[in-house]
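Ticket #4471: structure output looks truncated?

Reporter: J.K.
Steps to reproduce: submitted the chain below (301 residues) through the standard prediction queue, then opened the result file.
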Amino acid sequence: MTLDFTGRVAIVTGAGGGLGRQHALALAARGARVLVNDLGGTVGGEGGSVSAAQAVVEEIRAAGGQALANGASVTDAAAVAAMVQQAVEAWGRVDILVNNAGILRDKSFAKMPLDDFRLVMEVHVMGAVHCTQAVWPIMQAQRYGRIVMTTSSSGLYGNFGQSNYGAAKMALVGLMQTLSLEGAKHDIRVNCLAPTAATRMTEDLFPPDMLAAFRPEAVVPAMLVLAAADAPTRAILCAGAGTFEAAHITLTPGVHLGIDATTPERLAAALAAVTDRTGETVPLAGTAQGQNEVARARAAG
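Returned output as attached by the reporter:
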């Protein structure tokens, strides 16, 4: 099976370098027309120039592809709406959105200024919201859409010094879970990608002998699968150095204890059984928790 994007229109945010650049190049190489968005700022979000996005556009065009540059900040809803309109005016549709734009402002929670927390949330979470909301009615009308949210192991599992980044990245998982349900009837499939790659944001974290293995290109196959016509939906696909995994938000069967004055103490005593992962499930919707609790309560009489 060949993943072919001929005739598709893709928007990739944060595509002036690193992972986003590789995503844009790969989609274009497989036939997609790509709007390359990048603010052109620093890792911390300062400054801005469209030159980074334009350089990637020139790479795509030099290889025979079609591409447009855009320097909008994803935090600016009006600029994002104009960006989406730019793609529609040029190519008539938007089939794929890769929400890749992001910044880092790492610091331990005790020392983190609230402005740094807010800005990271604004770029990662509201940036994805702005872009997704701008393409959503287009994808509904054409009854087709593929949206990739960029999450992170820092959100899924935590990472010292990244409370803001981790909170933002886990928020994108929650956004994906609901949007995948709301988009299903219009064939809008929404997934998360958790990459491990040596980019300007992360290259200092890798041993020198592993930098080549963790090059951004190694993450691209997972993005292509999540953006393809046969993509899954509600998947959290992890990728790095040629290894691909899946992460899941699960629910244990739990234990019914009832409610009386002794329940807190009995819950403390039964916590190992409550957290036992034997028989855990991946719920299809948030209602699964309540349904499990109803069933357990009824069974208890």
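Triage note (M.O.): checked the attachment and the full token line is present. Strands lie at 9-12, 33-37, 67-70, 96-99, 145-150, 188-195, 236-240, 243-247.
Status: closed, working as intended.
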